[in-house]
Amino acid sequence: MTTQIEPLIVVAMTTTELEEPLEALQDLGFSEIEALVYTYLLQNEASTGYRVSHAIGKPTANTYKAIASLQDQGAVLVDEGENRVVRAVPPKELLSQMSRDFQDRTKSAAEALAELNLEVVDDRVYALKSAGQVLERARVMLGRAKGMVLADIFPEILEELKGDFIKAAARGCLVTVKVYDPTELTGCECILQPDGRRVFSRWPGQQLSLVIDAEEHLLALFDDGLKDVHQAVWSRSTFLSCLHHNHLAMEHLVTLYSARRQESMEGADAAFQEHLNLSVLASSPSGLQTLKSRYGR
Fold it and tell me: pTM of whole model > 0.85?
């Protein structure tokens, strides 16, 4: 009677007290029983598979399969002696190994998939749903910008993407960014909204507007803290991207004019004239050339 009840008690303790570690391991690809085995071994001295199975309340055969799988993954060490005692690999060592393995698999997958990635004309507008997806799309866009980048970006998002803007400028892109806090981005022109704190405090979230080469654009509204995305869209429509390019160019011009006007009208007029080349027709980015080759004269 005792041997039947004991495993159930251990399982109850495991699933309640270790819920977060178990979920974290399953997020990394462990099965439920693999996560149970590994967490048990972390908390106890080296054990036989039979003892582990009784401790976690799982069938012995299934537990031995889980141990074999964990051994293949480098998560446990098995003494090849008569009793085949099992011990857990320390978490830091395991996670470091898993990280390297993942990077190797990612590199191999990128090489294998590169040959299948056919670039086609696609004018659709796509919704993005997660904060991570939006930020990664922004990084990819900035990484492939060839000539011109325009952005209107709130402080928390800018903190995540600073390095990517600087890298785009270092490649020779003209990068102009409207910001809401005093900011330095090496090689980029930052146009500061004079009353930035008031503006973004009244807006319902953290906003990102980004256009590269008038070829593709990304618009997103995050919550504060960048945990969730209220709404985000991305498109490689050259027509829509040209329009959004001009929208951002005019936003930059108006902001710059308003800021310089506080100092002098002459300075405001001069700054306005200097930055007229931001417009899509004046700058003639590659997206405009593509649009003209498809539809225009």
Answer: no
